[in-house]
Amino acid sequence: MSEWWTYRPSDFLMFSERTYRRLFELLNADLWPGQLVAIAAALLLFALLRRGSLGLGRLVFANVAAAWLCTAWAFFWQRYAGINWAAPGFAAAFALEGSLLLALAITGRAAGLRAAGEARAMAGRGLLLAAIVYPVLGLVLGRPTSQAEVIGLAPDPTAIGTLGILLVCRWDESSLPGGARLGAVALLWAIPVAWCLVTGLTLWTLHAPEAIIAPALALLALWAARLSPTSSSLPPPHAADR
Description:
Blueprint: H1 17-31, H2 34-51, H3 57-77, H4 87-106, H5 118-132, H6 134-140, H7 155-168, H8 178-205, H9 213-225
Helix pairs in contact: 2-5, 3-4, 3-7, 4-8, 5-7, 5-9, 7-8, 7-9, 8-9
């Protein structure tokens, strides 16, 4: 048996880029016109983030949770699992992220939107906008619209958009026990960041020209997360929900 260090990433992918793109074509055909609903919902969230609306944290987290759960089932479990042995694990991770976001929305631990420091807010809105227009990338690269990757249905724009929302939108962390609070924050960030790295490696192995985009945007999100989370002129977290 060959030594493990002799393996390359391509040895673990038993499919071509053409096969991978075909998954999105099938996804879009089966879920049409769900793409229009998903984009409309993302544009609504972008408008809310742009306005800095308060008291709508539940709506935001519920919508993002639906996107992660839909992607876990429709893409990973029903389609990607047919060509990639790791897909069920990806589906579980996306379902976990969606469930955590949904729990925050249902239990009322999702606070209203906060006007973040200007640099962080701009980065967050920029990432969400990049996720919304992500299908344009495929057109630029010469792919048909039938293979478009739409936020809320495809994993890459969903993860990128979520990182943008996490930069601007936060929940009432004080309502969580210390350990649970740390775990929730870590998971909410770790899963989309990890996926951006995984998809970057996958696309690089498939020789796709956009392989660097998701990892680069994830690094941008992590950098922006180090900036001041909120401006001092805003009311305390509980005040927005009164």
